[in-house]
Amino acid sequence: MEKRYKQQYSSYYTDCLVVCPECGKDAVVKNENNYKEAVLECRHCNLRKTGYEMVVYKAIVKLHCPVCAHSIRVERCVKEKLPKISVQCGECDARFDIKPRYEKYFSNYSQKAQGLKQDDVFGCPLYFQDDCKGNLFWAKNREYLLEMEAYISSELRTLPYRMRMVERLPAFIKEAKNREAVLKILQKWKNSYR
Description:
Layout: E1 15-19, E2 26-30, E3 39-41, E4 48-50, E5 55-64, E6 71-78, E7 85-88, E8 95-98, E9 101-106, E10 128-132, E11 135-139, H1 142-153, H2 171-174, H3 179-192
Antiparallel strand pairs: 1-2, 2-3, 3-4, 5-6, 5-9, 7-8, 10-11
Helix pairs in contact: 1-3
């Protein structure tokens, strides 16, 4: 009898396993969909960061000096919005307190990822990712990994009424010629994380 695929997990995105930016071991990102509530926790080095801590503001001031009409442009990164910042004209050295315009940015660890799939808030590389026949193959967490394994190892894959995660998998994962290679990587990941 053929092995039929049956969905096992309903929520794949509750937590996301990432590589800790401090110790390089596994860490968990919780509430990844909302940066204000997102938390990065490492059980090995006790790192704990919140998404709110990663917010940085760029204060931007563009104006012409009221004294000499010289163009003034100032950009500063600040942790909190300030009501006014002090700027100085480069020509006449006059000082002004000006209300800046702010742009919000996230200061994250994305420079350490170097082409790998990352979580959306902290920019840490995902814990489960590998090269599979020239393609980046990744899983966000253990439930995601187990669901992919059940889908890929099944011989009969019926299409449900509503689209699920497994129907959106890249073609190289679904192809029969890559089945053994993909399952081998999934098994390696399962054995590496307890």
